[in-house]
Amino acid sequence: MAISLANDSVVAPFLIRPALTHSDSTLSLASSWAIVATIAVGVVLLLFSAALKLKTMSSHGIYDHIPPAIDYGIGGILRGSLHLIMSARSILDAGYRQHGGRTFKIPAFGMWRVVVNTSELADEICKASEDDMSLHLALDATFAMSYTMVPSYCSLDAITAIVTKAIRQSLSKSVEHQVYADLSDEISTAFKDTLHGVGHDGNDDQLVKLSIRLTLDIMATGMLLPLFPRACRRFVADACLYVLGTKRRFASHLHSVISERLRLHSPIADKASRDRVDLLDHFIEQTPPDKRTVDFIVHMIMISNVAAIHTSAITLTQALLHLATSQEYQRELRLEASPILESLGWTPEAFSQMPKLDSFLKESSRMNGIGLASPFRMVLRDYTLSDGTRVSPETIVCSNIRAIHRDERVYAHAEEFDGFRFADQLNVSSSSFDRPTRHYYAFGYGRHTCPGRFLASAELKMMMTYLVLNFDMVVEDPVASLAPSDFVFSISASRSARILLKRRGATQSAI
Ligand code: HEM
């Protein structure tokens, strides 16, 4: 998506395809050969492995009692997998229409995905014990994260547990005011850079670009890896990431800051009394002393970046697209925010008194979200779901979030976007944007509920408010702009959408 000022000059390819100049990554002849060799070896292994997997799938009787979402007939597993690349949404919808709330299966590149369609079953998989189902192994099977984001001497489970704990600690209630103050400062600087053209290309800017690029490289590499035999994955991942170069540049960019912080590290309880504490301090504190190396901390930062960047960007983009299609919503959000910010400033108290803003983000996430088959888990031992569906180890069970978020029994006129649907609810906090419930899974549910959701909520609310106070927004071609660009089960806002911004009076500039 692009955002333009009203004279139509595009000022910033924004959020979904963030700009990154490649001048610093010109590939040498040697690396071009390395790419060709990697691709050639990859294609051979890939065909071999895909053939083996398809054979296993067709002969695996354990899945016979689960109906397919769509019956593709002869050669169905291969055709179904190819269809899934660009049409997951229509496959899920077709399966739901045909089977109602019944569980069905979808072929997905050498494995079956078992899809549950009710909030009761989604709730069940989120609450299943770690001995029965695993989020991290499901992530690994889908994006091969163990090979791209985890050092070879550690497991995805172990490192994510440390990252999650550190994020939770860094966002505790006691530092809420500081988090809001830091965010408002960052957001006003970032928008001035991107939208008011006060750009600079300093050290921080390079790191931002590298972080965004690295997330994309990791996801792209990770999506290819599950097609390769397990034994080759580490090699292929290292080769791809070496050639792409972003992981190395990211690590070297952070090296001196992290090693200095490791050298000076003292327990947070001591440090907090005399100095500012940030997420890096929490990462170091939560890491067992024998693992406190620059390499380990770099990997933790990568994991939190991958979890945070595109999830937040996609969620904001989708909400902005809805907002830009309606002058009325913009007017109402301005009327809600202006007097509160005037009296309370950009504080947690202020944003907790904006039910319309909260509702708008929640409604956008209900309608769109970041994934079509989420929450999802990998089955670790034979398990029977409460609807009688038997699933065997290594099966991925996922939730049809579109069907659950469009359940008419829970959401009246569920197919319609109703920005203030949740605004009138008496107890706003019990149904807020960042609060998962059995009928709202934007941030997952159960023990793996997103630990960054409070930060995401705060930053998205501030960015929406900044934009709505400072600009009038119009979207070009609203129908096409609201059409998503999905890839397999990942949702992305339309890549061709353009929002035009017209600056409002200077008095509206509020941060
Ligand atoms: C709008 C933005 C975001 C959305 C929609 C989102 C969504 C999610 C979802 C759906 C999950 C999986 C939960 C489950 O399966 O039960 C998750 C996990 C996670 N998220 Fe977020 N997230 C967002 C922002 C962030 C941010 C800003 C951070 C970091 C500061 C973050 C860090 C994580 C981590 C570390 C996990 C893994 C938790 C675990 O393994 O237990 N997320 N997120």
From TrEMBL:
Q: Where is the signal peptide?
A: none
CDD domains assigned to the protein according to its UniProt record, in alphabetical order: CYP503A1-like (cd11041)
Binding of heme, residues: C450
PANTHER family of this UniProt entry? CYTOCHROME P450 (PTHR46206), P450, PUTATIVE (EUROFUNG)-RELATED (PTHR46206:SF7)
Provenance organism: Steccherinum ochraceum
Q: Which GO terms describe its molecular function?
A: heme binding; iron ion binding; monooxygenase activity; oxidoreductase activity, acting on paired donors, with incorporation or reduction of molecular oxygen
Listed cofactors: heme
The domain of life is: Eukaryota
Which key words tag this protein in UniProt? Answer: Heme, Iron, Membrane, Metal-binding, Monooxygenase, Oxidoreductase, Transmembrane, Transmembrane helix
Protein name (record): Cytochrome P450
* Gene Ontology CC terms, in alphabetical order: membrane
Q: Name one Pfam family in it.
A: p450
- So where does this one cross the membrane? 30-52
Q: Which family does it belong to?
A: Belongs to the cytochrome P450 family.
Check the record and name the InterPro entries matching this protein.
Cyt_P450, Cyt_P450_CS, Cyt_P450_E_grp-IV, Cyt_P450_sf
